[in-house]
Amino acid sequence: MLHPAIQDITGQQPVQSAETRSSQEKGLFNTSWTVHFLADAHKALPRFLRILGTVVQTHEVKPKPKTIQCTRCYQWHNTRTCARPQHCNICGSYDHSADTHTSSCNATAPHQCPPKCLHCKGPHPADDLSCPLRPVPLHLKTKPETAIILKASRAARKRAIAAVNCVHTPVTDILMASSGPVTPTRSLVTATAPSTLPAPRFFDPRSLNAFSSLEDED
Predict the structure, then answer these.
(1) Tens of pLDDT, residues 95-125
(2) Which of the ends of the chain has fewer CB neighbours closer than 10 A, N or C?
(3) Are 144 and 152 within 8 A, CB to CB?
Protein backbone atom coordinates (compact mmCIF):
# COMPACT_ATOMS: atom_id res chain seq x y z
CA MET A 1 0.00 0.00 0.00
CA LEU A 2 2.84 2.36 0.76
CA HIS A 3 4.60 2.08 -2.59
CA PRO A 4 1.62 3.00 -4.82
CA ALA A 5 0.70 5.89 -2.50
CA ILE A 6 4.22 7.33 -2.66
CA GLN A 7 4.37 6.89 -6.42
CA ASP A 8 1.03 8.66 -6.92
CA ILE A 9 2.09 11.67 -4.83
CA THR A 10 5.76 12.03 -5.82
CA GLY A 11 5.80 10.44 -9.27
CA GLN A 12 8.77 8.31 -8.21
CA GLN A 13 8.79 4.53 -7.90
CA PRO A 14 10.19 3.22 -4.57
CA VAL A 15 12.32 0.08 -4.83
CA GLN A 16 12.25 -0.95 -1.16
CA SER A 17 10.63 0.13 2.10
CA ALA A 18 10.74 -1.20 5.65
CA GLU A 19 9.88 -0.09 9.14
CA THR A 20 12.89 1.04 11.16
CA ARG A 21 14.20 -1.17 13.94
CA SER A 22 13.74 1.48 16.61
CA SER A 23 10.12 1.93 15.56
CA GLN A 24 9.51 -1.81 15.85
CA GLU A 25 11.14 -2.08 19.27
CA LYS A 26 9.36 0.91 20.85
CA GLY A 27 5.92 -0.08 19.59
CA LEU A 28 4.63 3.50 19.47
CA PHE A 29 1.49 4.65 17.73
CA ASN A 30 3.56 6.65 15.25
CA THR A 31 5.94 4.57 13.13
CA SER A 32 9.04 5.38 11.09
CA TRP A 33 9.80 3.87 7.70
CA THR A 34 12.75 3.96 5.35
CA VAL A 35 11.97 4.16 1.65
CA HIS A 36 14.65 3.54 -0.97
CA PHE A 37 14.75 5.05 -4.45
CA LEU A 38 17.14 4.61 -7.35
CA ALA A 39 19.80 7.30 -7.06
CA ASP A 40 19.87 8.13 -10.78
CA ALA A 41 16.14 8.90 -11.07
CA HIS A 42 15.49 10.20 -7.55
CA LYS A 43 14.48 13.81 -6.92
CA ALA A 44 14.17 15.64 -3.64
CA LEU A 45 10.83 15.05 -1.86
CA PRO A 46 8.70 17.76 -0.25
CA ARG A 47 9.17 18.32 3.46
CA PHE A 48 5.63 17.12 4.23
CA LEU A 49 3.55 14.52 2.38
CA ARG A 50 0.00 13.35 2.84
CA ILE A 51 0.02 9.57 2.50
CA LEU A 52 -2.92 7.27 3.29
CA GLY A 53 -4.77 10.11 4.99
CA THR A 54 -1.85 10.98 7.26
CA VAL A 55 0.56 13.90 7.08
CA VAL A 56 4.09 12.57 7.27
CA GLN A 57 7.42 14.35 7.56
CA THR A 58 10.28 13.30 5.29
CA HIS A 59 14.03 13.32 5.92
CA GLU A 60 16.51 12.64 3.14
CA VAL A 61 19.33 10.33 4.13
CA LYS A 62 22.15 10.05 1.61
CA PRO A 63 24.11 6.80 1.77
CA LYS A 64 27.74 7.18 2.70
CA PRO A 65 30.06 4.64 1.10
CA LYS A 66 32.24 2.90 3.66
CA THR A 67 35.89 2.04 3.33
CA ILE A 68 36.24 -1.70 3.94
CA GLN A 69 39.66 -2.87 5.14
CA CYS A 70 40.64 -6.51 5.29
CA THR A 71 41.72 -7.76 8.72
CA ARG A 72 43.95 -10.39 7.12
CA CYS A 73 46.21 -8.51 4.69
CA TYR A 74 45.00 -4.97 5.60
CA GLN A 75 44.26 -4.03 2.02
CA TRP A 76 40.99 -2.51 0.91
CA HIS A 77 38.55 -5.37 0.34
CA ASN A 78 36.34 -7.77 2.26
CA THR A 79 38.10 -10.25 4.54
CA ARG A 80 35.84 -13.11 3.47
CA THR A 81 37.15 -12.97 -0.10
CA CYS A 82 40.82 -12.50 0.82
CA ALA A 83 43.28 -15.22 -0.25
CA ARG A 84 46.47 -13.32 0.60
CA PRO A 85 48.82 -14.28 3.44
CA GLN A 86 48.37 -12.83 6.90
CA HIS A 87 50.10 -9.50 7.45
CA CYS A 88 51.15 -7.78 10.64
CA ASN A 89 49.34 -4.48 11.08
CA ILE A 90 52.14 -3.23 13.34
CA CYS A 91 55.14 -3.57 11.00
CA GLY A 92 53.59 -4.74 7.71
CA SER A 93 55.46 -8.06 7.63
CA TYR A 94 53.80 -11.14 6.12
CA ASP A 95 55.98 -13.53 8.17
CA HIS A 96 53.89 -13.10 11.32
CA SER A 97 50.73 -11.50 12.68
CA ALA A 98 50.19 -8.81 15.30
CA ASP A 99 49.84 -11.49 18.01
CA THR A 100 53.36 -12.81 17.37
CA HIS A 101 54.97 -9.48 16.45
CA THR A 102 58.62 -9.14 17.47
CA SER A 103 61.09 -6.31 17.07
CA SER A 104 64.70 -6.37 15.89
CA CYS A 105 65.55 -3.39 18.08
CA ASN A 106 68.44 -3.86 20.53
CA ALA A 107 67.40 -1.09 22.91
CA THR A 108 67.17 -2.04 26.57
CA ALA A 109 63.75 -2.76 28.02
CA PRO A 110 61.28 -1.29 28.64
CA HIS A 111 61.19 -0.08 25.06
CA GLN A 112 58.59 0.01 22.31
CA CYS A 113 59.49 0.76 18.71
CA PRO A 114 57.16 2.92 16.61
CA PRO A 115 54.94 0.91 14.26
CA LYS A 116 55.33 1.04 10.50
CA CYS A 117 52.27 1.51 8.32
CA LEU A 118 51.90 -0.95 5.48
CA HIS A 119 50.57 1.79 3.19
CA CYS A 120 52.27 5.12 3.89
CA LYS A 121 55.30 3.84 5.92
CA GLY A 122 54.40 6.26 8.70
CA PRO A 123 54.64 5.67 12.49
CA HIS A 124 51.19 4.14 12.97
CA PRO A 125 49.50 0.73 12.42
CA ALA A 126 48.13 -0.24 9.04
CA ASP A 127 44.52 -0.03 10.27
CA ASP A 128 44.83 3.49 11.69
CA LEU A 129 41.85 5.57 10.59
CA SER A 130 44.06 8.66 10.31
CA CYS A 131 46.41 7.13 7.72
CA PRO A 132 46.87 9.72 4.94
CA LEU A 133 46.73 6.97 2.29
CA ARG A 134 43.51 5.48 3.56
CA PRO A 135 41.22 5.62 0.50
CA VAL A 136 38.42 8.14 0.68
CA PRO A 137 35.51 7.61 -1.74
CA LEU A 138 35.36 10.24 -4.47
CA HIS A 139 38.68 11.72 -3.25
CA LEU A 140 41.33 9.29 -4.44
CA LYS A 141 44.99 10.32 -4.26
CA THR A 142 46.95 10.97 -7.43
CA LYS A 143 50.48 9.64 -7.99
CA PRO A 144 52.19 12.99 -7.16
CA GLU A 145 50.10 13.31 -3.99
CA THR A 146 50.95 9.73 -2.99
CA ALA A 147 54.68 10.38 -3.52
CA ILE A 148 54.54 13.46 -1.28
CA ILE A 149 52.67 11.56 1.44
CA LEU A 150 55.16 8.68 1.34
CA LYS A 151 58.11 11.02 1.67
CA ALA A 152 56.56 12.90 4.59
CA SER A 153 55.46 9.68 6.35
CA ARG A 154 58.92 8.12 6.10
CA ALA A 155 60.47 11.27 7.55
CA ALA A 156 57.91 11.23 10.39
CA ARG A 157 58.79 7.64 11.26
CA LYS A 158 62.51 8.44 11.31
CA ARG A 159 61.79 11.21 13.79
CA ALA A 160 59.68 8.84 15.87
CA ILE A 161 62.49 6.25 15.93
CA ALA A 162 65.00 8.88 17.02
CA ALA A 163 62.63 10.12 19.72
CA VAL A 164 62.44 6.72 21.45
CA ASN A 165 66.15 5.91 20.88
CA CYS A 166 65.76 2.74 18.86
CA VAL A 167 68.98 0.76 18.34
CA HIS A 168 69.23 -1.38 15.22
CA THR A 169 72.43 -3.34 14.53
CA PRO A 170 73.03 -4.31 10.90
CA VAL A 171 72.79 -8.04 10.22
CA THR A 172 76.29 -8.15 8.70
CA ASP A 173 77.84 -6.82 11.92
CA ILE A 174 76.02 -9.45 13.99
CA LEU A 175 77.21 -12.28 11.74
CA MET A 176 80.82 -11.10 11.80
CA ALA A 177 80.83 -10.73 15.57
CA SER A 178 79.37 -14.19 16.15
CA SER A 179 81.44 -16.10 13.60
CA GLY A 180 84.92 -14.90 14.68
CA PRO A 181 88.05 -14.91 12.49
CA VAL A 182 87.85 -16.88 9.32
CA THR A 183 90.65 -19.43 8.74
CA PRO A 184 91.14 -21.06 5.38
CA THR A 185 90.66 -24.83 5.30
CA ARG A 186 92.69 -25.46 2.18
CA SER A 187 95.09 -23.62 -0.05
CA LEU A 188 94.45 -22.98 -3.65
CA VAL A 189 97.16 -23.98 -6.15
CA THR A 190 97.21 -22.32 -9.50
CA ALA A 191 98.63 -24.45 -12.30
CA THR A 192 100.75 -22.64 -14.86
CA ALA A 193 101.52 -23.85 -18.34
CA PRO A 194 105.23 -24.49 -19.24
CA SER A 195 106.90 -21.58 -20.95
CA THR A 196 108.61 -23.80 -23.60
CA LEU A 197 107.16 -26.70 -25.52
CA PRO A 198 109.16 -29.86 -26.41
CA ALA A 199 110.51 -30.17 -29.93
CA PRO A 200 108.20 -32.07 -32.31
CA ARG A 201 109.10 -35.66 -33.17
CA PHE A 202 109.28 -36.53 -36.88
CA PHE A 203 107.94 -39.80 -38.29
CA ASP A 204 110.53 -42.33 -39.48
CA PRO A 205 109.01 -44.96 -41.82
CA ARG A 206 111.93 -47.37 -41.09
CA SER A 207 110.77 -47.65 -37.51
CA LEU A 208 107.84 -49.78 -38.71
CA ASN A 209 110.14 -52.42 -40.36
CA ALA A 210 111.08 -55.18 -37.93
CA PHE A 211 113.93 -56.44 -40.19
CA SER A 212 116.92 -54.34 -41.10
CA SER A 213 118.50 -54.57 -44.56
CA LEU A 214 121.94 -56.05 -45.25
CA GLU A 215 123.15 -52.65 -46.35
CA ASP A 216 122.45 -51.32 -42.90
CA GLU A 217 124.53 -54.12 -41.29
CA ASP A 218 127.59 -53.18 -43.37
Answers:
(1) 888 888 877 788 887 888 899 999 999 999 9
(2) C
(3) no
Q: Are 84 and 75 in contact (CB under 8 A)?
A: yes
CA distances from 22 to 2, 15, 16, 37, 50 (A): 19, 22, 18, 21, 23
Which of 125, 140, 127, 123 is closest to 69 using CA atoms? Answer: 127
CB contact at 8 A, 67 and 76: yes
Q: Give the predicted TM-score (pTM) of the model.
A: 0.50
Q: How many domains does the chain have?
A: 1
Q: Is 78 domain-assigned?
A: no
CB contact at 8 A, 132 and 121: no
Domain that holds residue 11: 2-57
Q: Is residue 108 part of a domain?
A: no
Residue 27 located in a structural domain:
yes
